[in-house]
């Protein structure tokens, strides 16, 4: 495998552009890391200062209880604790360019550094027989960790907005087979918050690049044996290698050697999709990095822990929203003829039907004309949605925009027929058209919200909706449920993608 350079003049211009791109990336990364330093200092000092104020009433605190003849006040302990905490945050790489702004590794390192601080304090207390005030530590450490996480989340939100505006991106060259390269380039383009901007692709010679030309995608800059040349011409700052039969371990190692002197990162995708991080374990076997993929979590998604959470959450929501439920019911009854609630048969876990409850948002004859609408609009019976649906009432349109029509489904949750989070509930005609893959949706209870609801709602295609539902079924965790509920609140408040 060889990497050929372009002619001298072109090489000099491309190298200058690439160096400028690296300088810009390093500049915004350094500036962003400095902002994180300020936020971390404020969070840590605020936590330890608040702990001292709450526990001891201010700076006039009693001295530290230890056997040495030197008197040390808790103000000194507070400053030492803050300095040690900040040092551990730096030592654990919590502000490294590879982890800031995306993924869960940044938060894992925050938690790891804080737990390490607990360990250091415990060892010091044991070795020097120091009696730290437990109330002081019980306030400082949890409060500081929460403040650190909140600060990182705030900056992450700001970074995503900057990236949506076309700033703070890393230029990436995608390498792989046409199918894999197209899928990876599309994933980067569809998620600007990831921070990668595709500047070109390299596909094996003779494999064809028609799909990129047809879909208006990135330019094909060469084959997978002229990557260095493509990097220089595109000013790429990273190279992402997707699945390809043409690049083996030796070629990838040599590519890393070639890219290192010019400061370009190498990213190798394992070729698996929709696998949650909790199911992945990185291991080195015989000198080769490997990913162990844990089995799908179907059983965990049916656990009693999830059922208990669903019951408690649904009961709390119904109690708190009771006045709104009465107001919505009054508006539905006063503005259109028919019952307040709409009962529709849906297919639940293991294919068992149940009656799903919603506030009625359509006219009474809505179900009788659905087949005509599907034929008229060319919709898919598996996932039929149409904007400006003539069956929807004016009040129903408002309820649907903010998903208020679905609030009564919390009664289905109390009855054990639905979950707060799960795949989209389906009608019989949709289930009848399922293939073997899509029937996996029926392994768990349907939910009021889920991955597809927070990823585009009605604007998603059938394929994307099915993919997201199946991803949820296979990757369930309690943390995922809580995260999806939190994201749902934001999506519903904005009214995005609902009709």
Automatic annotation (TrEMBL):
Question: Where mainly located?
Answer: membrane
Q: Which UniProt keywords apply?
A: Membrane, Transferase, Transmembrane, Transmembrane helix
Q: Transmembrane: present as a keyword of the record? A: yes
What superkingdom does the record give?
A: Bacteria
Residues annotated as domain Bacterial sugar transferase: 306-493
> Which InterPro entries does the record associate with it?
Bact_transf (IPR003362), EPS_sugar_tfrase (IPR017475)
Protein localization: Membrane
Q: Topologically, how does it sit relative to the membrane?
A: Multi-pass membrane protein
Residues making up the signal peptide according to the UniProt record: none
Transmembrane domains' residue ranges: 32-52, 72-89, 110-130, 136-155, 307-332
Among its keywords, does the record have Ligase?
no
NCBIfam families assigned: EPS_sugtrans
Family (UniProt): Belongs to the bacterial sugar transferase family.
Q: What is this protein called?
A: Polyprenyl glycosylphosphotransferase
Q: Which organism is it from?
A: Nocardia rhizosphaerihabitans
